Amino acid sequence: MTAAEKQRIRKRPIQNPKVLNEAYDYPKQVSFVRGMRVESDNSVLLFISGTASVDEHGRSVHPGDVKAQTRRTFANIKGLLASEGADWHDVVRTTCYPADFRHYDEFNEVRNSFYQEEGLDPFPASTCVEARICRPELLVEIEALAMLPKGRAG
User: Fold this and answer.
1) Is the dihedral of CA 20, 142, 87, 45 positive or negative?
2) Residue 1 domain-assigned?
3) Which end of the chain is least crowded, N or C, by CB within 10 Å?
4) Domain for residue 2, yes or no?
5) pLDDT 10s per residue in the chain (154 long)?
6) What total number of domains does the chain contain?
7) What's the whole-model pTM score?
């Protein structure tokens, strides 16, 4: 191990193939992982990549239905968190990307309902930005940042 490698913070990809396949397994390869686990002395940060309404085979699901897509997106993130021994109570920040702010009220209704079902208090810090998503049929994408004690394993 080189001196530079000894000084690097330990990290590894987050995976849960029962929920989502890896983007580099798509027929048209995409170069990113679903998330990254980064460990420091006493804590772990989970960086969940932008996640949308995609099934375990990489197919878009619920085209045209922003509420169903939002539910699937939150469920996908929940599955990625669970693979690391985390849950939505560990999420400290989200960035939400609706494709069209005309659907914001529907998106927010699902988000509020999901957070209530999860019993979150307080809610994560959040930013919401209208964005063009990589597939035209996808109406929402969310990324998340979670923090948990280092001793908790997935």
Assistant:
1) positive
2) no
3) N
4) no
5) 666 566 777 766 666 666 665 554 555 566 667 788 888 888 999 999 999 999 888 889 999 999 999 999 999 999 999 999 999 999 999 999 999 999 999 999 999 999 999 999 999 999 999 999 988 999 999 999 999 998 876 5
6) 1
7) 0.85
